[in-house]
Amino acid sequence: MGMMMLSPLTIALPIKLLLLVMIDGWTILVQGLMMTFR
Questions:
Q1: Residue 26 and residue 20: Cα distance in Å, rounded?
Q2: DSSP string spanning 8-30?
Q3: CA distances from 33 to 13, 19, 21, 22 (A)
Q4: Which one, of 20, 24, 17, 18, lies nearest residue 32 by Cα?
Q5: pLDDT tens readout for residues 1-38
Q6: What is the pTM of this model?
Q7: Rounded (5°) CA angle 32-35-36
Q8: What per-residue confidence (pLDDT) applies to 3?
Q9: What's the rounded Cα separation, in Å, for the pair 11 and 28?
Q10: pLDDT value for 2
């Protein structure tokens, strides 16, 4: 429903933001794990 109306940019932008947030979350998680293992 109305997927053709959406431009690729409006679809790609939230995905890129989500990826950045996920990567940041992973780095924080890994750093936290490293701190606990030391």
A1: 10
A2: HHHHHHHHHHHHHHHHHHHHHHH
A3: 30, 21, 18, 16
A4: 24
A5: 566 676 888 888 889 999 999 999 999 999 999 999 87
A6: 0.50
A7: 90
A8: 62
A9: 27
A10: 60
